[in-house]
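Q: Sequence in, structure out?
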Amino acid sequence: MDNDIKFTLDAETVDKLAAFGELLDKDVSTMINEALQLYFETEEEKLAEKDSAERDAMTNLSFDEFWDGVDI
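A: Exactly. Output:
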């Protein structure tokens, strides 16, 4: 896989990267990698929840739906 990816950042983002880099004593690459790692983890959780909800939607009934019409 080619490790060269080209992307563009707006001026405000570049300024924030520089400011946070100084405050946190981190280089830009580290901050971007940390941010992307957090993004990927968050999106994986969303996808897992969506997949679970789609599977559960086909099989689960609410309590009232399950017991509706049952005489005890």
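DSSP finds three helices and no strands in the chain.
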